[in-house]
Each structure stands twice: as structure tokens, then as C-alpha cells.
Amino acid sequence: MIELIKELSFRNPYYLLLWALIPLIYFILKKYYTKKIDTINLPESSSLLKFKKNWRVTLLPYLIIFRLLAFLLFIFALARPQLALQEEKVNAEGIDIMLTVDLSSSMLAQDFKPDRLEVCKRVAAQFIDKRKYDRLGLVSFSGEAFTPCPLTSDHDILKEYLANLQCGLLEDGTAIGMGLGTAVNRIKDSDAKSKVVILLTDGVNNAGYLKPITAAEIAVKFNVKVYTIGVGTSGAALTPVSRRSDGEYIFGLAQVEIDEPLLREMATLTGGKYYRATNERSLENIYAEIDKLEKTTLEVTRFKRFKDLYFWFAGFALFLLITERLLRITVFRSTP
Fold this sequence. Notes:
This protein is of the alpha/beta class and 336 residues long.
């Protein structure tokens, strides 16, 4: 209701000044109808007669309200009320972004609650929701790399793939070069004005046949900017150290090792930036900063069309006048 009032405007608002005449109209109508009501003068002795007003006599003076309301609504109709209906056409010069997530077993470390992977998925989903006009894709890697979801504008399906990421789906290890190389391969042919890879890992490159720096150089060749994020607290964390025969992980304290110099060099080489996330809040802040750095250019064209409402007010005013007249000649009819 409040939104509708905000969209209401008047074509001829100066007619609303006529509302100032309402007190005068009320005075004239009251005087006119008071004269029309015949009165009978009785001698003082007639005070013995008990005269009881019925409901018709009580309500008769209030019929003036019908005419006053009708007058008010006619003025409203003259002011030409209109409802502004807005439409907008958005031309977005979007950014293509590949989210590249480490799925090595160390991502199950519990220095983040419940673990690094779950927090990373949750924060990444929030980031996706903010990129309304961009295409995003998803690459996962551990000892090898895989693309669960190529670039898409369907953010719901992307978040579904993101939510289904699990450690153990791929050969264990940390192939940072393979992860970045796969992401660049998926985004290199894009026509977007800006191509970005956000690579998140918690370890040291120890697998894969593509070196991380070589992958970064390939990114430079295709104008892909890389933001790298190292995830993990400082010191030791409760981390998977081995695995039972049934596939369940055994946890133990282990030192957090992130190759920060390498991640920083990769980001700098491509014109991006390296970040370190030691808790969930810092990871949220990192994604918020990247969101600000990589702004989508929008061209919004707004159209307005107006819907006239005056006939509703004029029609209701006419209804009030007819109703008032019918009541006066029927229910409230006075004896001549």
C-alpha cells in the first residue's frame, strides 16, 4: 500500500486547493437543510408531553457528510490522479568469473567451523548472490582438476553444484597449477569485458603436471585476472592425517602450510591480488573487497507510463450523491 502511494501523482495538482472550500460548503449545506426542517412551537405547558427522537431524526443531519465526501472526491478527480508504472531495461556489461576451489582433504580442517570447505562454500554462495548480472562458473581441484559447472548466468544451478562439492571426489593432493589452468581454459574465449579467476586453496602445490606460475602466465596471455586466497589459521589445526579402510578420515593436529609467496606471485603477475583468510569473517571481507574491485558496468534505461485513476473517484462521488438523494426521498423523507 505504501509503495502504491509513493507511485501516485497528480496531473493537475492545483485543483486540490479547492479543498479549502470544504468548511464553507459544510456551513452552506447545514444552513440550507436546517431551514428546510419544519419546527413546531409548543407552549411551555407542552413540556409535559414527552417527545422521543427516533433514529431517523438523529441521523438526518449526518446526510450532509455524503455531499461533502462527494465534493472532496470530485476535486480529487479534477486533480487527475495517476499511478506511475515503472519499467526498466538493463544492459549489463558483465564480468565472467570462475570460482576455483581446493578439494584436498586438508580443506576438512576444523580451524573453521564446521570446517574450511563448508565455510568456503557458504561465503562463495553469498558472493554469487551479489553478482546478479555476471556469468560465473566453478572449477574444483585436488590432485587433479574438474569443472562441475562451466560459465552460466543461472546462479541457482551454480549454487547447487557448489553445495555438492566434497573432499574425496578427486585424487587427493593440491594441484594449484592444474586448478588455475582449467579455470583459464574455461574462461579464455569469453567476450566479457573482464575475465576473473578467484582461486582458493589451503596448501602447497604438490601435484599435477602444470606449474602454478606457468598457469598464471597463460592467464596473462588471455587477459585473465587472478585473485588468490589462502585459507587457514596461523599455527596448528585439527586436520585429516590419515584415512581408515572404510574411507573415514582420522584427524590430528598439523601445522598449517600455505605457499603464500607463490600465491602472491601468481596474483601479482596477472594484475590481481593475494588474500589470507584466517577465519570466516576475514573470508567474507575478502569476497566483499573483490566484489567492490570487480564492478559490473550497468546501463539502465527507465520507462514510465501512467494509469489514470480519476474515473474511480468521480464514479464514487456520483454514487455518494445518488445514495444521499435516495435516502432523503425514502428513508429520511420529511412530511410536507
